[in-house]
Amino acid sequence: MATRLSKTRCIRCDKEKTAVTCEGCLQLFCYDHLTEHRQELNKELHHIALNCDNFRQTLIEPITNSQKELFLNQIDQWEKDSMKIIQQTSNECRQILIQHTIKNIHQIEINLMKLMDEIREIRQEDDFNEINLKQFDMKLKQLQQQLDEPSDISIQQDSTSFISRIRVVVSSGKN
After folding, report:
1. What stretch of H or E contains 95?
2. How far apart are CA 138 and CA 130, in angstroms?
């Protein structure tokens, strides 16, 4: 740590004495003040060691409850908001489906009534043949298919998300 020099001035007492250069701060100290300087360095080292111990203790303790709770609350709120959006969208889709189904059934009933009127009319007139029967049967099957498998409605899922995604981001810093 120290290098011996011939008589020079001590940085502390300003007396010309045999002095030693501290290799850390490059100051000249007489032997009396070199001892004091070493004690000061020891105190500083002790202070740094205490700070290390205190810091280590904070590492051992988990994230403070308030920090953890804040993050968990944000995640919970995102979940609630997302579920609300999903429920709202589901309800809107159900309403559209119900309204369309009612409208579709109504239209099928109108067409069925027309078909039944046609059947009643040709039955009364007793004026029908196989072609008429096939046409009636085909119309009835089409009405049944419109009821079972409506061609003008479907369910589509968008590839874009309408719920903003949440994630925990951990910054990667240089250690």
Report:
1. helix 65-125
2. 12
